[in-house]
Amino acid sequence: MAKIFQVSARAGMTRVVEPIARALLRAGVTPNAVTVAGTVGVLVGALGFGARGHLVAGALIVTLFALTDLLDGTMARMSGGSTRFGAFLDSSMDRVADSAVFGAVAYWLATQGNHSGVAAALVCLAAGGLVSYVKARAEGLGMTCNVGIAERTERLLIVGVGGILTGVGVDPALEIALWLLAAVSIFTVGQRMAHVYRQAQQLQPDGQA
């Protein structure tokens, strides 16, 4: 269901993003520049607002700039396809942005004395890195790994909703969202490892254990 929702949402967003992408390309802006600008925006939202307790503003800014993930991809497609460095930069900047988001959440929860929430944020940070690493490592070995219920879009959506609800007075919402995200992220790691294991078994030459 998450995959269906994500594909439908992306299809709708693409119709909005394409005119912006064309305008930026005509102005000489490169997809890589948009990737870096989006990451800087996420850092501002997470560290400049979220870490200081301005959760609603932080979540909205992070969400806005996270959408550049779709914009830079659309620009790359329109300009002839993503380059190897562009794909590398995009993946690297995603990890920087994710670390800033969950680091900022953990810091703010620590200032509130919410040790359980800090633990949840740290689990999300570690598990989110593993979700991405398992996929990258599988693809580096020539296999696919496009499975899982908690990809990057879903992870940011869950923590964003939790942050907004806490920011408007629903105090436990962020901690609940983080523990939910921790659970689905760990489950996604398991899903991906099982998926890769099955592929590896099928690719393994006969007679090898």
Automatic annotation (TrEMBL):
GO terms for molecular function: magnesium ion binding; phosphotransferase activity, for other substituted phosphate groups. The active site is at 94 (proton acceptor). Pfam families: CDP-OH_P_transf. It catalyses: 1,2-di-(9Z-octadecenoyl)-sn-glycero-3-cytidine-5'-diphosphate + 1D-myo-inositol 3-phosphate = 1,2-di-(9Z-octadecenoyl)-sn-glycero-3-phospho-(1D-myo-inositol-3-phosphate) + CMP + H(+); a CDP-1,2-diacyl-sn-glycerol + 1D-myo-inositol 3-phosphate = a 1,2-diacyl-sn-glycero-3-phospho-(1D-myo-inositol-3-phosphate) + CMP + H(+). The keyword Membrane applies. It is found in: Cell membrane. Mg(2+) 2 binds at residues 69, 90, 94. The chain crosses the membrane at residues 116-134, 155-170. Mg(2+) 1 binds at residues 69, 72, 90. Its EC number is 2.7.8.-. The keyword NAD does not apply. Its main location: membrane. GO terms for cellular component: plasma membrane. It is a multi-pass membrane protein. Pathway: Lipid metabolism; Phospholipid metabolism; phosphatidylinositol phosphate biosynthesis. GO terms for biological process: phospholipid biosynthetic process. Its cofactor is Mg(2+). It comes from the Bacteria. Contains a di-nuclear catalytic Mg(2+) center. Keywords: Cell membrane, Lipid biosynthesis, Lipid metabolism, Magnesium, Membrane, Metal-binding, Phospholipid biosynthesis, Phospholipid metabolism, Transferase, Transmembrane, Transmembrane helix. A CDP-1,2-diacyl-sn-glycerol binds at residues 32-35, 73, 77, 83. Catalyzes the conjugation of the 1'-hydroxyl group of D-myo-inositol-3-phosphate (also named L-myo-inositol-1-phosphate) with a lipid tail of cytidine diphosphate diacylglycerol (CDP-DAG), forming phosphatidylinositol phosphate (PIP) and CMP. PIP is a precursor of phosphatidylinositol (PI) which is an essential lipid required for cell wall formation. Belongs to the CDP-alcohol phosphatidyltransferase class-I family. Homodimer. This is Phosphatidylinositol phosphate synthase. It comes from Micromonospora orduensis.
